[in-house]
Amino acid sequence: MIGRLRGQVVYRQPPFLMIDVNGVGYELEAPMSTFYDLPDSGEVTLFTHLAIRDDAHVLYAFGSESERALFRTLLKVNGVGAKMALAILSGMSVEAFTSCVQTDDTASLVRLPGIGKKTAERLIVEMRDRLDKIETSSGGPAIKMTQPAGAVAETPVSDAVGALIALGYKPNEASRLVRAIDSDGLGSEEIIRQALKSVAPS
Description:
Elements: E1 4-13, E2 16-21, E3 24-29, H1 32-36, E4 44-52, E5 57-62, H2 65-74, H3 82-91, H4 94-102, H5 106-109, H6 117-127, H7 156-166, H8 171-179, H9 188-199
Antiparallel strand pairs: 1-2, 1-4, 2-3, 4-5
Helix pairs in contact: 2-3, 7-8, 7-9
């Protein structure tokens, strides 16, 4: 089991990134909360979760152990897969999710992509007794770098729309959220941050 990686980020296009560890490139999927905390330079340490499926081995990355713990716990909930778990972590912090569960706040949960009222209610019921196992301390962050030379450059807006779709938003909803933002001069991650903030619980 691969539990942690340390190296240099050579490619990032949310929700995907690649990290170079001693010459080996690991492809990862990560929630936007992890991308937000990537520092401008230096080495990155990411906590990982390896999912083995019939058609692929997928490695997920997280900036803190608490995020990974929540991700793993969410996967145990009936009807919640990796895509929905990433969307939850992208749309709210571990602390915010904990608050939703403790206060029976289904309204905030249904704002996230792919979560209807029944799923929100099931999350609250099944997660309530499991939250005490999840620490809310932040973990070590990572590094910010650009796409490798020669990569096809996309616009920040199209990157943001693509990332939201990958997180579970329908194409028209992703486009609507991005269009509602004054994106002039903003990078894709900041556009995504503002788009998610517009639907996140206050």
